[in-house]
Amino acid sequence: MSRDTALVSADWAEQNLETPGLVFVEVDEDTTAYDGGHIPGAIKLDWKKDLQDPVRRDFVNQEQFEALLSERGISNDDTVILYGGNNNWFAAYAYWYFKLYGHEQVRLIDGGRKKWELDARPYSKDVPVREKTSYTAKAPNLEIRAFRDEVVQAIGVKNLVDVRSPDEFAGRLLAPAHLPQEQSQRGGHIPTAISVPWSKAANEDGTFKSDEELAKIYGEAGLDGSKDTIAYCRIGERSSHTWFVLKELLGHENVKNYDGSWTEYGSLIGVPIALGDEPGKA
Amino acid sequence: MTSPATNVAANVAAGCAAPDQSASLPSSVDLAKETVITGIVRNADGEVVGGAYVRLLDGSGEFTAEVVSSPEGVFRFFAAPGSWTVRALSRHGNGELVVDADRGVNEIALDVATV
């Protein structure tokens, strides 16, 4: 994987809005942004309503994903171009999700909605109607998804990358600072995890930093390239952003996203938790 | 009556996307515990700027959070007491301000202009 096969620029996107075989998809938790204006021709996916099971705390399954993409008019051979707000957090999550279910051609628009807005590029309020398809998803690729037991076993063994803000890592905040802080789980981080906030990987306009800058950031933070890596955050979307960087941009082999992340880990009975700014001991 | 199970569901459902920035504070927010930093983004002509990307940087300049200002230019963060920098990027230019926040509501005015 590399930048060429994972990322497109906002310029490229604007020049290819009419190109056949491309489906532009805006992904957010709050889809009012889409409703108020989106990249012309883009359809929307709602992170919560479309990609999460309505009852159990889990993803939609293979059949539900097939039904969703068929209903939205996405074919197996379409190239899906994803973008969104929050510096592409949810678009990166969707990217990971499309990869989990084996979609071949997926790209992120570098910088997402923010870059599009700051460049003063055009929006449309027209909602495109796409012919239904018959989408076939593959079985979930669990080589890119980590579960809790595996995470506990990875303490002191694999690279654990905590991509939340430093205050969340240390246990001083329980959620990102744009959300109320009252939560049920304990604060802190998984012992031996290194702290590399997702934001280190992004420029102020939401675009990704260069491969050289990225390699330096994770190298200096202590990421051991010879080990497997698990990235986590609070609910798994910021860590999708870092998963994208490590796996798709830098081409690391074995990188998993722990989507249960801190809302799961910080609620488990009996697991070790480290407080403060240091990774802590296994 | 709220069961622990629904609390967990609410936390998960709350996700990480920013709540509606134009809404008044939810009644569930306890101002004795929360440190709210809020304000309005305005351009050089004093007009409110909606759609600005407002980011909260901690005392060391590290990114902590980002929200998009409402059509009325309003933004809001839930932080902790201490020194923060609030920085806005917009079609109309950028601007930033240092704020020493205390518990409760901290209101600031943030001006953006092209350099």
Explain briefly what this protein structure is.
The complex is a heterodimer of chains A (282) and B (115). Helix content of chain A is 30%, strand content 12%.
CATH homologous superfamily of the largest domain in chain A, by name?
Rhodanese-like domain
**Unreliable segments of 5+ consecutive residues of chain A:** none
Considering residues with a beta carbon less than 8 A from a beta carbon on another chain, report the largest interface and each chain's count. Answer: A-B, 44 and 41 residues
Structural class of chain A: alpha/beta
DSSP summary: helix tally of chain B = 1
Q: Count the strands of chain B?
A: 7
* Shape, per Cα inertia axes of chain B: globular
| Level-2 CATH architecture of the largest domain in chain A | 3-Layer(aba) Sandwich
Sequence of strands across the biggest β-sheet of chain A: 1-5-4-2-3
Stretches with pLDDT under 50, minimum 5 residues of chain B: 1-15
Strand content of chain A: 5-15%
Q: What is the residue-averaged pLDDT of chain A? A: 94
Catalytic activity (chain A): thiosulfate + hydrogen cyanide = thiocyanate + sulfite + 2 H(+)
GO molecular function, one term (chain A): thiosulfate-cyanide sulfurtransferase activity
Keywords (chain A): Repeat, Transferase
Protein name (chain A): Sulfurtransferase
Would you mind describing this structure in some detail?
The complex is a heterodimer of chains A (282) and B (115). By secondary structure, chain A is of the alpha/beta class. Chain A is built from eleven helices and nine strands. Chain A folds into two domains: 3-118, Rhodanese-like domain (Oxidized Rhodanese, domain 1), CATH 3.40.250; 148-265, Oxidized Rhodanese, domain 1 (3-Layer(aba) Sandwich). Chain A has a five-stranded parallel β-sheet. A four-stranded parallel β-sheet of chain A has the order 7-6-8-9, covered by helices on one side. The longest helix of chain A is centred in the middle third of the chain and has 12 residues, at 89-100. The mean pLDDT of chain A is 94. Chain B is mainly beta and 115 residues long. Chain B has a single domain (21-111), classed as Immunoglobulins (Immunoglobulin-like, Sandwich). Chain B is built from one helix and seven strands; from the N terminus they run αβββββββ. Chain B has one helix spanning 4-14; strands spanning 35-42, 53-57, 63-68, 74-79, 82-90, 93-101, 104-111. In chain B, strands 3-2-5-6 form a four-stranded antiparallel β-sheet, with no helix packed on it. In chain B, strands 4-1-7 form a three-stranded mixed β-sheet, with no helix packed on it. Chain B is globular and about 35 Å long. The model of chain B is unreliable at 1-15 (pLDDT under 50). The interface between A and B is large, with 44 and 41 residues.
